[in-house]
Amino acid sequence: MSIKLGDIAPNFQADSSLGNLDFYEYLGNSWGILFSHPADFTPVCTTELGFTSKLQSDFEKKNTKVIALSVDGVEDHKKWIEDINETQNTEVKFPIIADKDRKVSELYDFIHPNASLTATVRSLLIIDPEKKVRLIITYPASTGRNFNEINRVLDSLQLVDSHKIATPVNWNDGDDVIIPPAITTEDAKNIFPKGVTEIKPYLRYTPQPNK
């Protein structure tokens, strides 16, 4: 199965480091970040999970839950979490799915045969409260993800959903945003009271709206 942007993320039930869970029930009405790891007790994954743990309170403020996945078992996950907490100076509180039979990995197309027949690649999905897939990023196993970028995209997606805007290149929370071409400049002046800066008729900026 190949999942694309705009698809509904499929539900699943699986064992995890925090017990058996139903993915939809776990997410509830929150946004979700689901990300896969090639294996437990690997150095790059250890740094990723440690950094994600440090971001968890920030994600919670954004109504977002994180959940990791590895093809190893629950007992390995629990032992690995001890290592992560020790080496990354954190406390992992989010679940890590135990996917020994690779059912979830195959459901979400996390195994790429040309990269590995048995291990998952570093795939990450952002899923909105309607369970729609809004972001898909896949890295090779050797390259750690940039969670500052993932956090940035989450900010953009949530802002775009609440306002009629788009975000430009290298945008960060608080920067000016772009007015979509579908909105006329005249209408934009009424919609965006902070002002409209027109560079070209199709390229117009406005200060970021209040969240």
Automatic annotation (TrEMBL):
Any GO MF annotation of the entry: thioredoxin-dependent peroxiredoxin activity
Database matches in NCBIfam families: PRK13189.1 (NF009668)
Species name: Chryseobacterium zhengzhouense
Enzyme class, broadest EC rank: oxidoreductase
CDD domains, per the entry: PRX_1cys
Family of this protein: Belongs to the peroxiredoxin family. AhpC/Prx1 subfamily.
Alphabetical UniProt keywords: Antioxidant, Oxidoreductase, Peroxidase, Redox-active center
Record flagged with keyword Oxidoreductase: yes
Identification of the protein by name: Peroxiredoxin
SUPFAM superfamilies listed in its UniProt record: Thioredoxin-like (SSF52833)
Record-listed E.C. numbers: 1.11.1.24
Signal sequence residues: none
Residues in Thioredoxin domain copies: 3-159
A Pfam family the protein falls into: 1-cysPrx_C
